[in-house]
Design goal:
The protein has 425 residues and is α/β, with parallel strands linked by helices. It contains eight helices and 27 strands. It starts with a helix and ends in a 9-residue tail after the last strand.
Length: 425
């Protein structure tokens, strides 16, 4: 009986090793689950951080694109950076930058490096709010009341010693941006990014005309007492430059002291006569016509047009006009001034009549000035014709270097300098 009991007890003890193995397996599985969960949490945190940092970087990039666009707009804006439809004000560029002609550089108004404008939006990005205060004043924006991220940016301008260049800095934030009175930027939220680029300005008028009246073809005014004046020694005092003949028996000429008057009238200029229309345009404006029209012109106007069309554009702070079609100006009106001239490219003919007073560089496929009636008709700057110049009027074409320099100073377009983008100091 004892032997039988002993064998029975031994049978009841079988399976203990299996229990130990199962427990060990459960422990191993628990360890694996713990490490897997730890990795999952780490990846979630990494992903969230990556999302926030990307959001801040994209906000900073948005600031670069927004400020570049604003610098290239000529329209007047209010303190919320929205275009004005009436009243007085400044463009974004004129509000914060001043061009120094003597050095060919931009001065940042207020202080270099301080934030000048800021914008914020909700997480869906459909309700941007911006602030463009006066130079030297810290911008302030109110975050949307909705929850979630509130991407924002503040932009600053920095002086650059290079000719016609300025540095643009954008600070991107995930949730709100604050600018103190010194112009320093503080980001709300969990992430911030800084992006900077150098912008170079392409001149709208690349090369100054050498004479108050230039024609690729002939200049024919017959016996009209047309007046041409150029006392600027840097332009050699040339008064008329034509690719073909000059028929102007009673021309009234004023040039630099000591220069024989008719020596300043240059006709049959081969370089003009042999150039194509596009080559002639690029000589003065530095780029093809379509490029200037599409990327430089402040306003593209469909013609036929009159002096009222031009006056309305000037009143809207447009100074680089492209007129598609013919222009006829037939009123006693003053357009522009010495300190505020404009440039006008007419893809058609220009016909002027009466006692106009124009401060500009005008360019057209043909130029005519008739019936001035012996009044005070005056063009201060330069007239350029792709074809001929004709007319029986007696206006005065006066080459004023102040007007030309002010026109050269008018920004054409700010463009990124390749290789200057960086997201570090």
């Amino acid at each position: 009986m004892k032997h039988r009991l002993s064998f029975a007890m031994r049978g009841a003890q079988r399976g203990a090793g299996a229990i130990v193995a199962v427990v060990l397996l459960y422990v191993a599985m628990a360890i694996i689950v713990i490490f897997a969960n730890r990795n999952l949490i780490f990846e979630q945190k990494t992903s969230a951080n990556q999302y926030r940092s990307t959001l801040a970087l994209e906000a900073a990039e948005a600031g670069i694109e927004w400020a570049s666009t604003m610098l290239n707009k000529s329209g007047l804006i209010n303190n919320t950076c929205i275009d004005l439809t009436s009243g007085s004000g400044f463009s974004f560029r004129d509000k914060y930058l001043d061009y120094v002609q003597t050095s060919g550089t931009w001065t940042v108004l207020g202080a270099s490096g301080r934030a000048v404008a800021a914008c914020v939006t909700s997480q869906n990005g459909t309700d941007w709010t911006c602030n463009c205060p006066a130079a030297g004043t810290a911008p302030a924006v109110t975050e949307p009341a909705v929850g979630g991220f509130k991407p924002s940016f503040a932009v600053a301008l920095e002086t650059n010693a290079a000719t016609r260049a300025v540095d643009l800095v954008s600070y991107g934030c995930t949730s709100g941006v604050t600018v103190n009175n010194g112009g320093a930027v503080t980001c709300g939220g969990d992430a911030a990014a800084t992006v900077r680029v150098t912008l170079a300005n392409v001149a709208a008028l690349a090369t100054a005309p050498g004479a108050p009246l230039t024609a690729r073809g002939a200049v024919d005014v017959g016996n009209a007492a047309l007046g041409v004046q150029n006392g600027d020694p840097t332009s050699a005092g040339i008064t008329v430059n034509a690719g073909m003949g000059v028929n102007a028996a009673n021309l009234r000429i004023t040039s630099t002291p000591g220069t024989p008057p008719w020596a300043t009238v240059v006709g049959n200029d081969e370089s003009l006569r042999n150039s194509t229309e596009d080559q002639m345009f690029q000589t003065f404006f530095g780029m093809p016509k379509t490029t200037w029209r599409d990327s430089v012109a402040d306003a593209v106007l469909t013609c036929p047009c009159t002096e009222s069309t031009v006056a309305s554009a000037l009143a809207a702070n447009k100074r680089k006009l492209w007129l598609q079609g013919n222009l006829v100006m037939n009123a006693n009106q003053t357009l522009g001034s010495v300190n505020d001239p404009f440039m006008m490219v007419v893809d058609g003919s220009i016909e002027m009549r009466g006692d106009l007073e124009v401060y500009a560089v005008v360019y057209g496929t043909a130029v005519t000035w008739d019936n001035t009636g012996g009044g005070s008709a005056l063009l201060v700057g330069a007239a350029i014709s792709e074809g001929n110049y004709t007319g029986n009027g007696t206006p005065d074409y006066y080459y004023d270097p102040r007007v030309i320099n002010n026109l050269i100073a008018i920004p054409g377009r700010f463009m990124r300098v390749p290789g200057t983008w960086r997201d570090f100091q």
